[in-house]
Design brief:
five-stranded antiparallel beta sheet, 36% helix, 364 residues, 2 domains, eight-stranded mixed beta sheet, signal
C-alpha cells in the first residue's frame, strides 16, 4: 500500500478546492482526503476530514482514526512548518470532538409487524397521490408544514411505502403535535442521487431551537442495522434480546435503503420544528417523521452494532477524547523538541525571543 506522502503533494494538500470535494461528494471518504483537509483548513477540507471521521461510526473507532491522522502528519512529509503541523493537529482534534457527539444515521428496515397506535404520531412525506401508511398524515410540497428552496417530491416504484417516496430540498419543517417529551425518528432514503444522500439532513439541524450536528455519512456508512417493529422495550437496559429477536424474524419489508436519525426533544408550543443547515450544492431528503413518548416502549429496534453507537456513554466519549489529545500532545512535544527558538515562540503564540550577542572571547 502506498504511503500518503506518495499520493499527495504539499501543494495538492494545501490547495484542496471546492470543485474537487464536491465532485467526490458521494465517494467513500479516504485517509488521504482527510489528511489533506486537515492541512488545508478550508471549509471543504474540514468537511472532507469530518466525512472520514464520521464514517467510523462508534466514538472509539473515530478516535483511532483521528489519532492515526495526527501521527501521519509527522510521518507523511506533506508539511515541514511546525505551525502548520500543529494547526492541522488542532483541526483533527476539533473534528473528532464534533464527531463523538454527532447524531448518526441508522440503516432502517420496516417489518410486517410495524403499526402505528394512539401513542404515536406519524408524518409521511411525498407526492400528494402517493400511498400513505395507516396512522400517518400526508405531507407534500404544497403543505404549509414544509418550506425550502424549490422542494420537489420523489416517488420510487419499489420499497416500503414509508421510505420509497419523500421530499427533497427542505429547509424547514413544522409539524403540529401535542406538548410533551418525545423520541423523534426522522427518516430518509438512499435514492442514488449524490447531492441528496451525502448529507440528507444538512450539516446540522435545529430541533425546536437546539442545534444537533448530524454525522456526514454516505449510505454505505450508515450504522447497521435497525428495524421498525411492534412496540417493545427495545431501548431499555434489558431490551437487547427483544431487539435481536426482531432481526432474526426475516420479516422486513423491501430493500435495506432507508435511514433514520433518532433524537429526543420536548415540545412546548404544540409544534415540532426542524430547521436544516443546507450545504451548497447538496440537498436534504426526508421521507417521514415518527414521534413517540420518550422513556416508554419504542418501535425502533436497534441491532447490537447500532446499540453500541446509540448508547455511547459519556465515559466512552471521555476515553476517545483523551486518546486523540494524547496523540496531539505527542506531536507538539516532537515539534518543540526539534524547533528553534523562533519556531517555539510561534507555536506558543509568544513574542519572538531576543537573542543575546555571541561573545567568543571572555571579557575577563
Amino acid at each position: 500500500m502506498k504511503r500518503i506522502s506518495q499520493i499527495l503533494s504539499v501543494g495538492a494538500a494545501l490547495a484542496l478546492a471546492a470543485p474537487a470535494v464536491q465532485a467526490q461528494v458521494a465517494a467513500e471518504p479516504t485517509r488521504a482526503d482527510a489528511l489533506a483537509g486537515a492541512l488545508a483548513g478550508s471549509e471543504e477540507g474540514v468537511r472532507a476530514m469530518e466525512r472520514y471521521l464520521d464514517s467510523a461510526g462508534a466514538a472509539q473507532v473515530s478516535a483511532d482514526r483521528a489519532a492515526g491522522l495526527i501521527r501521519e502528519l509527522r510521518r507523511s512529509g506533506l508539511a515541514d512548518d511546525p505551525q502548520v503541523l500543529q494547526q492541522a493537529a488542532d483541526r483533527i482534534s476539533s473534528a473528532a470532538s464534533r464527531s463523538f457527539v454527532s447524531a448518526r444515521i441508522y440503516k432502517t428496515r420496516v417489518t410486517s409487524t410495524f403499526r402505528m397506535d394512539e401513542k404515536r404520531i406519524g408524518f409521511d412525506f411525498g407526492p400528494p397521490d402517493a400511498e400513505t401508511r395507516d396512522g400517518f398524515q400526508k405531507v407534500d410540497t404544497r403543505s404549509e408544514m414544509v418550506k425550502g428552496p424549490n422542494p420537489s417530491a420523489m416517488r420510487r416504484p419499489e420499497g416500503e411505502s414509508l421510505l420509497r417516496d419523500g421530499i427533497r430540498n427542505l429547509r424547514q419543517v413544522k409539524l403540529p403535535v401535542a406538548n410533551g417529551k418525545y423520541r423523534v425518528m426522522i427518516a430518509t432514503d438512499d435514492i442514488g442521487v449524490p447531492e441528496a444522500t451525502a448529507n440528507p439532513y444538512g450539516s446540522a439541524m435545529k430541533v425546536n431551537g437546539e442545534r444537533v450536528r448530524v454525522a456526514a455519512q454516505t449510505p454505505k456508512n450508515w450504522v447497521n442495522e435497525t428495524y421498525l417493529a411492534e412496540p417493545q422495550s427495545y431501548l431499555a437496559e434489558d431490551g437487547a434480546a427483544a431487539a435481536d429477536e426482531v432481526a432474526k424474524r426475516g420479516n422486513a419489508q423491501g430493500p435495506t435503503t432507508g435511514g433514520m436519525v433518532v433524537i429526543e426533544t420536548e415540545v412546548e408550543n404544540g409544534e415540532l420544528q426542524l430547521v436544516f443547515d443546507l450545504i451548497e450544492g447538496q440537498e436534504t431528503y426526508l421521507t417521514g417523521v415518527i414521534l413517540e413518548p420518550a422513556g416508554e416502549e419504542s418501535v425502533f429496534a436497534p441491532s447490537a452494532e447500532a446499540r453500541q453507537v446509540l448508547f455511547t456513554r459519556p465515559e466512552d466519549i471521555l476515553v476517545a477524547t483523551e486518546r486523540v489529545e494524547t496523540a496531539r500532545q505527542e506531536l507538539v512535544s516532537e515539534i518543540v523538541a526539534e524547533a528553534g527558538p523562533e519556531q517555539v515562540a510561534r507555536l506558543l503564540d509568544l513574542p519572538e525571543p531576543v537573542f543575546e550577542p555571541v561573545n567568543d572571547v571572555s571579557p575577563n
